[in-house]
Structure formats: structure tokens, C-alpha cells
Amino acid sequence: MTSELLIMEFDENCNGKIDEKEQKYIKENYFQMVTIQIFQPFLKRIFIFSTLEQRDIEIKNFTKDIIGIMN
């Protein structure tokens, strides 16, 4: 999604910028949900479908992936 489309969708007061109120709405309604959607399958996989040995490996791999994304 381009920045132009984001502004068109979330710029409630049509001033061409995303102000603090609009940022808060985006954060609460989109970014926090994305975070939950990333972690839920991971937690389900390691606590329901994995043995203790597999769990350790999954946690190490997930940590490497997250660190790679952040760098």
C-alpha cells in the first residue's frame, strides 16, 4: 500500500497528513492486531504441537527471525 492510499483512507480531516488522533487510531486498530496475529500461531505451535525439544528450537528460530526483521 502506498503512502498516498494510506492518507486517503485514514486522513479523517482531509488535511493531507496523518495527525496524532489518526495515528492513534491506526496503531490501535491495525498494528496491534498484526502483532497479535503474528504471535498467536507461534504460541499455539510451540505450546500445543511441539515437544520440549522442538519448543526450544522453535523459540530460537523465531528469535532469529524477529532480530533479522528489526535489523
What would you say this structure looks like, in words?
By secondary structure, the chain is an all-alpha fold. Helix content is 79%, strand content 0%. It has 3 helices and no strands. The protein has helices at 3-10, 20-48, 52-70. The longest helix is centred in the middle third of the chain and has 29 residues, at 20-48. It is elongated. The two termini are 22 Å apart.
Ordered list of secondary-structure elements with their pairings:
Elements: H1 3-10, H2 20-48, H3 52-70
Helix pairs in contact: 2-3
Percent of residues in beta strands: under 5%
Mean pLDDT across residues: 79
> Could you spell the SSE succession in H and E letters?
HHH
Total E-strand runs: 0
Alpha plus pi helix count: 3
Whole-number radius of gyration? 18 Å
Dominant shape: elongated
Which structural class best describes the helix and strand composition?
Answer: mainly alpha
Q: Share of helix among residues?
A: over 70%
Largest sheet: none
Low-confidence stretches: none
Quote the distance from N terminus to C terminus.
Answer: 22 Å
